[in-house]
Specification:
Length: about 60
């Protein structure tokens, strides 16, 4: 594959994405950041899981009432 064909493929992909490429770039940067600091990623995942459990418990309490 030549540089030109790779460039065309990337351009075509960006043009046909269902979401703005800027949004994907933000996500991609976040993934890279989390990969650089795996301990922080683990801590954030744990925090997110705890928050999810809390929300589910609150929703269950509301349903019981």
């Amino acid at each position: 594959m030549t540089d030109n064909s790779i460039r065309k493929m990337i351009t075509h992909t960006i043009d046909t994405l269902p979401v703005p490429w800027e949004q994907l770039w933000v996500i991609f940067r976040r993934v890279i950041q989390l990969m650089r600091d795996p301990q922080k990623a683990i801590e954030e995942k744990t925090e997110n899981q705890n928050e999810s459990k809390k929300v589910i418990e609150e929703e269950n309490e509301r349903r019981r009432k």
